[in-house]
Amino acid sequence: MKNDSSTPVIKLPTIGLNIDVSNLDEIIEKMEKINLLSSKITNVVPIDDYLLKQSEVAVILGINVVTVGKLIKRGYLKGLKLGSLKIRKKELDRFMIDVEKNKVSFEDIYS
């Protein structure tokens, strides 16, 4: 994958992937492939069932943790209170699709 210094990239060294977060379709496609691979390995939780910390969601979305908290508080993301707030990976996928379809405006969130 090509990467210049202005393109945000998430590195997943454990599975050998670099994901360009500027292309949501590519992210979803790669996550689906990861999910298929994980289901073939025994004793592994499918990736859709992963719980992400707010800080992990912030990194994935390229925003800060406070904004993730606002997304949860305003109902854009559903959080689970398990010690600290966690977000299911499939909930994050749903949110990113809503953003892509312009159902969510970050201008509303930041106001």
TrEMBL record:
Residues of the Helix-turn-helix domain: 51-96
Name listed for the protein in its UniProt record: Helix-turn-helix domain-containing protein
Organism: Helicovermis profundi
